[in-house]
Write a structure and sequence with these properties.
The protein is α+β, with helices and mostly antiparallel strands. It has 16 helices and 20 strands. The chain folds into three domains: 124 residues, Uridine Diphospho-n-acetylenolpyruvylglucosamine Reductase, domain 2 (2-Layer Sandwich); 113 residues, Uridine Diphospho-n-acetylenolpyruvylglucosamine Reductase, domain 3, CATH 3.30.465; 173 residues, 3-Layer(aba) Sandwich (Vanillyl-alcohol Oxidase, Chain A, domain 3), CATH 3.40.462.20. Helix 1 packs antiparallel against helix 3 and helix 15 crosses helix 16. The chain is globular. Bound molecules: dihydroflavine-adenine dinucleotide.
């Protein structure tokens, strides 16, 4: 009788002692880390929970309220870098004092990986790159150097101002930053003509795990391959990118045609699946499905009369008319894709101020065979349940299908008709809403399983989804076997090469998060 409580007391005492010693050693490591930072980084750029500016800066680019709920592990500091040397110092000090870094450019990660940790015990600092956002366009060479903290909107605006016939292929959301976008691929309305953003990167400047500054010739082709699509955070901090700008005509044409569910939308979507991926490369036609309607939204690299001819030839059932056309510049088309209108000023592309006002969970698929009409009917029925849900269908084909699946880590090339995103977003606080919305999107994803890519059920890494699996440690590095579960879904056969690059450039696994690339175990190398 008397022995059990005594053992319990002993265990409790040990636990308290070890917690005390861990927490006091944690405090001294934190102090040492902050002291190390302060040797090179001015105090106004170092924000800790004790600084009044900490919360505002931490929240400044958060895009998903799910990762700032009470109880979320917060960083012990936010470093607002304004020079490459600040990044080098943060990496060196983090490594020296065992404080992890979460690099944040635009904060749009669907799972908040750039500013939040699932591990309640993780001690980490956010390295915020929002102030590193210089863009220099060399129109004569059709190239640009752009820093990672620049938004897509800033890049589009600057390129458009330099030359009306130059553009850069990337996503539609203007506040997404280059750091995350290019690290994972970068898909947008020019992808069928010119591929992903990552397919158009010519050089980059990276801070590696030793705090060294490397460019393409000093980092070597393996690391240069890995940072163009292997996902953010795993290999180092990319400071800037040299981009190949692409040619567009002075006038492009856009349209958005709405068809309701009880009109013809289900028939049209069923047909769209076979038509959109084989349209001429100059024509991108996506579908957004919400509530009771589907919007068919297009960018054509040419004028209205030719587009009318193409649409009548390839997709007469959509019933496109001359009055649907809006002939504008390419840069104005980026406003159209962001704000669904051509009448807003270009300067809106420069607005970084969007505040987070919704909770978000996104899941996604690749579709390789057209989904039957009957399935679309039942899929659409899912959209009746929550008020805020959206399906996005983005066509592949064109240049996307002609690039080798191993040219960059992004493997989803030939054989894919389109990507399908299931968006669940909501505004209500509380666990009941959270559970309801999460189970809605997971339920829909489960239902779609028979109709989408298999072995693996493939996903684009920039549409980050922690349901696919999260990392576990083996010893002091991330387990390759565990990571492979999610890794092959994002990268298919490229996953092993990514792990081999990780072993070369960061064998101690300093740059890590819930879905970072693990080092390749020696036995596999
Ligand atoms: P964030 O700063 O959150 O970074 C994302 C990841 O990259 C994190 O793991 C981070 O640590 C790491 N990282 C960031 N900067 C880094 C750097 N300099 N060096 C190394 N690692 C770095 N995608 C797409 O292809 N096409 C699209 O049209 C859209 N549209 C879209 C709309 C909205 C509203 C959202 C929320 C997201 C998208 N996306 C998208 C997905 C987007 O491309 C993806 O989330 C990017 O990783 C976001 O990049 P940020 O720099 O903004 O995010």
């Amino acid at each position: 009788m008397a022995r059990t409580p005594r053992i319990l007391h002993l265990l409790l005492a040990l636990c308290i002692l070890s917690t005390k010693s861990t927490s006091s050693s944690a405090t001294s490591a934190t102090d040492a880390f902050l002291g190390c930072l302060s040797t090179d980084i001015p105090p106004r750029l170092l924000h800790t929970p004790a600084t009044p500016s900490y919360s505002a800066l931490l929240l400044s680019s958060v895009r998903n309220l799910r990762y700032i709920l009470p109880g979320t592990t917060r960083p012990l500091a936010v470093v607002a870098a304004t020079e490459p040397a600040h990044v080098q110092t943060t990496v060196r000090c983090g490594r020296r004092h065992s404080i992890r870094i979460r690099t944040r450019s635009g904060g749009h990660d669907y799972e908040g990986l750039s500013y939040a940790s699932l591990d309640r015990n993780e001690r980490f600092a956010v390295l915020d790159l929002a102030e590193l956002r210089t863009i220099r366009v060399d129109a004569a060479r059709a190239e640009a150097w752009a820093e990672s903290g620049a938004t897509l909107g800033e890049l589009y605006y600057t390129v458009g101002a330099a030359n009306h016939t130059l553009a850069f292929p990337a996503g539609s959301c203007p506040t997404v930053c280059l750091g995350g976008q290019l690290s994972g691929g970068g898909f947008g309305s020019l992808a069928r003509k010119y591929g992903l953003s990552a397919d158009n990167v010519l050089d980059a400047v990276v801070v590696d795990a030793d705090g060294r500054l490397l460019n393409r010739s000093t980092m070597g082709e393996d690391l240069f391959w890995a940072i163009r699509g292997g996902g953010g955070e795993s290999f180092g901090v990319v400071l800037s990118w040299r981009l190949r700008l692409v040619r567009v005509p002075e006038t492009v044409t856009v349209f958005s045609i709405r068809r309701s569910r009880n009109q013809s939308a289900i028939d049209l979507i069923t047909k769209w699946q076979e038509i959109a991926p084989v349209l001429p490369w100059d024509l991108y036609l996506r579908v957004l499905v919400q509530n009771q309607h589907a919007d068919f939204v297009a960018l054509y690299l040419g004028g209205c009369s030719r587009l009318l001819y193409l649409m009548r030839d390839h997709f007469p059932d959509l019933g496109m008319k001359q009055q649907d056309c809006q002939e504008i510049s390419w840069v104005q088309s980026t406003v159209f894709f962001a704000f669904f209108t051509t009448s807003k000023p270009l300067e809106l592309l420069l607005d970084r101020s969007g505040k987070p006002n919704y909770y978000l969970k996104v899941k996604s698929d690749h579709v390789q065979e057209p989904i039957p009409r009957l399935v679309w009917e039942s899929t659409w029925a899912w959209l009746e349940k929550p008020e805020a849900a959206l399906l996005m269908l983005d066509p592949y084909g064109g240049r996307m299908g002609s690039i080798s699946p191993s040219a960059t880590p992004f493997p989803h090339r030939k054989g894919n008709l389109y990507q399908l995103q299931y968006y669940s977003f909501w505004f209500e606080n509380g666990t009941a809403a959270l559970e309801k919305r999460m189970s809605w999107v997971r339920g829909l994803y489960k239902e779609m399983e028979p109709y989408v890519s298999k072995n693996p059920r493939a996903v684009y890494v920039n549409y980050r989804d922690l349901d696919l699996g999260t990392n576990e440690l083996k010893g002091n590095v991330t387990s390759y076997a565990k990571a492979k579960v999610w890794g092959v879904k994002y990268f298919k056969g490229n996953f092993e090469r990514l792990a081999a690059v990780k072993s070369m450039v960061d064998p101690d696994d300093f740059f890590r998060n819930e879905q970072s690339i693990p080092p390749l175990p020696a036995a596999k190398g």
